[in-house]
Amino acid sequence: MSFASKYFQFDSVKSSDMELYIVKIDSGFFSTEVSGGQSFISDKIPYKDVAFRYGTELQTLRFSITCSPLDKYWTDDFKFNIFNWLNGREPKEFKTSDFMGKLCYCICTNTLEIYTAGNDQGYITLEFESITPYWLSNRQIIIKDLTDLTVPYTFDINCKSNVQHPKYGNIYIPEKVEIQLIGTSTSFTLTNLSDMGRVTQFTELSAGETITMYPNTLRLESSTGLNRLSNFNKNWFRLTLGKNILKINEKCIIAITTMYPLYM
Which residue, among 217, 208, 159, has the nearest Cα to 188 in the 3D structure? Predict the structure, then answer.
């Protein structure tokens, strides 16, 4: 894999600040990794040519880049700093300057070997594995301040993902939704008119309470410290791929955090 730009970021550190740049060793065209692979989850059935298929699974996104300090030498201090930067055990954010609107969280997986001509000038190939089978958009927080709401409020969210959910198909489940009740409101209703009118609702809350939903992990938090599952209709908020028309009935401040999966 390669990128058109010679710059990238890893763990929020710019490669140019580390004096390391993406280089192209071969001439001609180069490939760009869009997604991980995909395969069936299946079982063989005796005396049947066609296996029983009950799903698909995606392989994690993997890519490699070739880097060089260009005219700089691979001194001991330079190697120490580069390997200290790249060789962590926890996934870190990776971005390329080709398109700063996408990222992944990955680790460097290969043996770190420097190729030189014997004079401490040369290049290194880095192989990365992401925790996801696809790229991710930058995190976005959509905030609506409905403190002065007097009639139901409708607004749009464009779900800019082209990756199907493994269980629900053309559905994206946001990272977090935070709702702060305003005034005397003790209930909250959020309707996605683009998802067959799916209603996410809380009732019998406290005035001024803040509810934080984590739909991906099915977790709820309340500013009161109380368990609010019994006050919840169990319809976790979600978006359909593309345009979503949402309606809110009560005074509140709502913040929806998204990070869309992308094939690109």
Answer: 208
